[in-house]
Amino acid sequence: MRGSYKTNIETKKQIDKILFKTVQMMANVGMKTSLDVGDRKTAKKLEKEWLQEIKDLDPEMYELLVPTVGE
Questions:
Q1: Which end of the chain has the least Cβ crowding within 10 Å, N or C?
Q2: What mean pLDDT comes out for the span 51-55?
Q3: Distance, CA of 59 to CA of 71 (rounded, Å)
Q4: How far apart are CA 30 and CA 38, in angstroms?
Q5: pTM of the prediction?
Q6: Is there a contact between 38 and 26 (Cβ–Cβ < 8 Å)?
Q7: How far is the C-alpha of 68 from the C-alpha of 71, rounded, in Å?
């Protein structure tokens, strides 16, 4: 499924949910809460997986979040 974050409400909702989940996870690393994934390495791995989901939904938004260096 591909859509634009700016024009497709369902794509926007899905991407916003992924971004919220990512921020929430990062804020809880090392806090020993139910949202704590344990360590930064695990958090970065999950973040990478979730960013791939965003790339599948909207490649343009992915490029804004993860710009290609050197191009």
A1: C
A2: 97
A3: 16
A4: 6
A5: 0.86
A6: no
A7: 6
